[in-house]
Amino acid sequence: MSTLESLTVDDLLAIRDSYYETSKGLKNTIVFRQRELSQDRIDALWEEANAIEENIRKIENQIFEVIVVDIEQPRQEIMAAIQKVQANIETLKEMNRGVDKLVEILKPFTTLMTMVFSPGSALGIVNIAELLSEIEAVA
Amino acid sequence: MELLYEEGEIMKTKLFQAKILIALTPCLLVLQGCNQEDLAAVESLKPTAETLALVGSSVSADIYGSCVRRERLDLEVQQATSPRSLETQFIPAVVLERCKTRESEAYTANQLNTTLVAYAASLLNLASDQTVDFSENINNLGVSVAAVYGAAGQSIEPGVIEGGTSILHSAMNMWSASFRRQSLSEVVICTADPVNSYISQLDSLVESSYVAALDRERDTILLYINNKYIGIYREFEADGDLDKYTRQRNDLEAELNRLMEALGERQRNARVYRQVLSTTANTHQALADTFRGDMTAESVSSLCRNDFDDGPIPIADENPDLSIKSELVMDGETSFQIHKILINHVQSVEKAIADKQ
Q1: Would you give the DSSP letter of residue B208?
Q2: Does pTM top 0.90 for this prediction?
Q3: Tens-digit pLDDT profile for residues B195-240
Q4: Are B199 and A77 in contact (CB under 8 A)?
Q5: Which residues does chain B have within 8 Å of residue A66's beta carbon, measured at their own beta carbons?
Q6: Cβ of B202 and A93 within 8 Å?
Q7: Rounded CA separation A97/A92 (Å)
Q8: DSSP state of A8
């Protein structure tokens, strides 16, 4: 005799559907033949239908567990692929930031050149030191 | 004199370089356009990601909703026919208990769907031209370089900086397009099996948790309405009031139509979702086959071995030893095939949505 745990999803679905048909049949009997049945019989049929439905819920729980276990490996691989894509996008962004950095580096250098070469510039040591430290900070 | 001669030679060389740079720019721009075309095509996956996000979240939420509706109607029929059996039970609490598993199924289905949406979105992000745009920074670089030359009093042929900037711009974008394309093809090839298996399991979860539940909801609605009708008919038998009977019967019919209409909408939603899942699996497989081209199984296996443990994909040009990765280069025919696959995909998704409406 096989336990629920040893069955495949297809087997479990087949059992569930068969249970469901039984429960549906019982409920239809209750509703459509309620005039002919005694109240005790109706109560008993409901009890039976509820017990079958409890079994259906157990089977569905098992189906869910099997699917979740089966899906875990591909899920992890997809998550890893997403991370890899993100890493690649980060690489591209880094390149962009590299160009941006170069522009930043060149900006104070431009100012320095302007100071050095513009006619009559007051070339102060302190200013150059400041600019150089600015360049170093950016680089 | 000698110095002047040397300066003249340097100037000639600079002029020559400037001419070459300027002449090369349009060619590079044309090449860059061709290379980006296949990447832009992947953007047609956007409706898929949007549909999966929208329909998938409503389907997963309704896995629980359907259970609550069905159990409530079922218990109402039970209460009407067997009041004693539910004497000491509070219906809303019974409903919550019976739908406990469905709640976790709904949560899991939503998480699984979210992962699939994230995957489609990350492929889009990688393929998209919006991922990185070097234009502004490279233009700024050109301005800075020109300013340095100008400030330093250097004379330079007009157009050299501009040409150099354009070439740098094109080269950077070509490199990034090539990097994106290679990353995209490798990710798609290496996730072909996991994506297929994942989508198939997700579909199986939706089928077992939701599609079957909607069928049962339909049975329960019919049982509930029939039971109500039997009550109405009994009253008519007892009092013979035809007007009241007709009014109650019409109200019941309106209730049946309303419940069935809402159910039909949910069933159509589920169908669209499953169609989009299926077409996404097929498209992903077709893309993987096209990207793979005539690579051998061993090459694919080497390409994907520990693929997701080693960070960003190295570029073949930077790593001449990576001969397997160099097999990923796409030609015009491959790009054409990818366009065809994606156009078919978009048409299938649009058709599924149109059928629902």
Answers
A1: I
A2: no
A3: 999 999 999 999 988 999 999 999 999 999 999 999 999 999 999 9
A4: no
A5: none
A6: no
A7: 9
A8: -
